[in-house]
Recover the amino acids of this structure.
């Protein structure tokens, strides 16, 4: 009988979570680089370059790839011949202690994003516990652990459907993907679970994303099962939609499609689909009684040597002297380099702002003529002014947009992915603009932030309003003052090009 020490599991979990906060899987880096090399859309290629450069910088700096350091999901295959000699904790408590140590590590503090009482007080647990843990008892004398840190941007785009047995899964995926927007930060992977019951399909979809990227090898050798045929069909069908990196239009939307299936009821076909984002992060380790299982660092040579240049057409913008006329002159797809003072504000801050406006209370900060950045940064360490500070999904702020623009005089907004119809209409109505920063490039973006301080709502933690002073922060004009959205025009253009095979 194998004896597994309590500390071996705790240390292995903590090490793995620290590791995946700043290291992409090498197979993912290779797949993104291949996509970068073949991409013909300049906007998508630029986004892919930023993702790759951010990845290398995070690996060197040992700081998070993304400001959203995720909710921890763990799959444990527990050998029935394992003994936990001297253990004082349950296995779940061991896992959560590993999570706690990883997320509070002083050299690489990770953002606490887990809230208890989710439909009530929504109080932050402050250490990212508890993890979501799935157990399977198996033969053997080892403990096999797969874990991931799943960000809200991708998780929130998860889909579940109960199809009829005769319905096409490919058709459902093709219909569904465009409804998910770009908040899941493509390019990434799709995990699909088919069969069982509703909850089984969802768990399989999540677990499938732990597998390495191998779609190109599958293409070369050819499919050997219906599941493999389906992977290829969905892979090609989704990429043919032209959504592209960050939803800007391009050749690569998904890097791989993973599928797990399970027998199901004769009249059922449950299907779950969960995307992994451009900050995909997961790890695997095995405990056999010999001590903790620690991750092996990749070589820096595993990353492509890519330099990123915004190009001569990029427009420098002074936020401290910004005028409405200048905002209305910005063109869709244009690259801007922002300089000066901006404010931050996410969901909780927006909710409090509109509540104060409704109550005719004075706001603690003046938004007139300002630009607001939808971000909840990671706490800084060492000599950082701010931790990784990538954008969050902007559609969550859509319902607040008209009132905030109307009553505060805010000029423009910065976030991730697309804006929905009500936000676009508000932007057009108030002659505002929406700018997009690249999701999955949080450490790179943070390098443009030269100072940071909390100026309002300190009690909201990472959701507090910060004042950033930025220098040449790169953004793309995603919605101009006329309401033209590149997340609508870009994919439509590239879908047509792909259909016509006019991509050269």
């Amino acid at each position: 009988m194998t004896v597994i020490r309590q500390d071996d599991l705790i240390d292995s979990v903590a090490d793995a979570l620290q590791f995946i906060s700043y290291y992409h899987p090498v197979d993912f880096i290779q797949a993104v680089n291949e996509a970068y090399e073949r991409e013909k859309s300049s906007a998508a290629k630029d986004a892919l370059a930023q993702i790759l450069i951010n990845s290398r910088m995070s690996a060197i700096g040992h700081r998070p790839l993304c400001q959203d350091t995720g909710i921890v999901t763990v799959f444990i295959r527990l050998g029935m011949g394992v003994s936990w000699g001297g253990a004082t904790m349950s296995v779940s408590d061991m896992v959560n202690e590993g999570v706690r140590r990883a997320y509070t590590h002083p050299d690489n503090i990770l953002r606490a994003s887990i809230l208890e009482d989710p439909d009530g007080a929504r109080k932050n647990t402050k250490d990212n516990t508890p993890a979501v843990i799935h157990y399977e008892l198996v033969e053997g004398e080892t403990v096999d652990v797969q874990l991931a840190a799943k960000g809200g941007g991708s998780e929130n785009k998860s889909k579940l459907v109960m199809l009829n047995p005769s319905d096409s899964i490919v058709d459902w995926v093709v219909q569904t993907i465009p409804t998910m927007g770009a908040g899941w930060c493509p390019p990434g992977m799709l995990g699909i679970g088919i069969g069982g019951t509703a909850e089984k399909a969802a768990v399989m979809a999540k677990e499938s994303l732990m597998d390495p990227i191998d779609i190109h090898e599958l293409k070369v050798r050819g499919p050997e099962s219906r599941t493999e045929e389906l992977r290829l069909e969905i892979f090609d069908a989704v990429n043919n939609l032209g959504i592209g990196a960050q939803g800007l239009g391009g050749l690569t939307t998904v890097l791989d499609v993973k599928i797990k299936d399970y027998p199901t009821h004769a009249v059922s076909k449950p299907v779950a689909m969960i995307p992994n984002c451009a900050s995909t992060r997961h790890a695997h380790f095995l405990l056999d009684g010999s001590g903790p299982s620690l991750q092996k660092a990749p070589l820096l040579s595993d990353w492509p040597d890519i330099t990123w240049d915004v190009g001569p057409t990029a427009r420098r913008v002074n936020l401290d002297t910004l005028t409405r006329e200048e905002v209305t002159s910005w063109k869709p797809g244009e690259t801007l380099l922002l300089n000066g003072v901006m404010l931050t504000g996410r969901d909780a801050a927006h909710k409090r702002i509109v509540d104060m406006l409704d109550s005719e209370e004075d706001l603690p900060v003046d938004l007139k003529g300002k630009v607001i950045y939808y971000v909840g940064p990671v706490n800084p360490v060492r000599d950082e002014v701010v931790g990784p500070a990538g954008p969050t999904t902007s559609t969550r702020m859509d319902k607040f947009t008209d009132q905030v623009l109307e009553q505060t005089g805010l000029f423009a907004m910065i976030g991730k992915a697309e804006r929905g119809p009500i936000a676009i209409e508000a932007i057009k109505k108030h002659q505002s603009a929406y700018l997009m920063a690249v999701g999955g490039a949080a450490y790179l973006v943070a390098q443009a932030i030269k100072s940071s301080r909390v100026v309002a709502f300190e009690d909201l933690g990472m959701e507090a309003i910060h004042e950033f002073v930025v220098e040449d922060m790169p953004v793309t004009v995603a919605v101009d003052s006329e309401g033209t959205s590149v997340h609508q025009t870009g994919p439509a253009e590239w879908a047509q090009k792909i259909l016509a095979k006019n991509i050269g």
The chain has 15 helices and 19 strands.
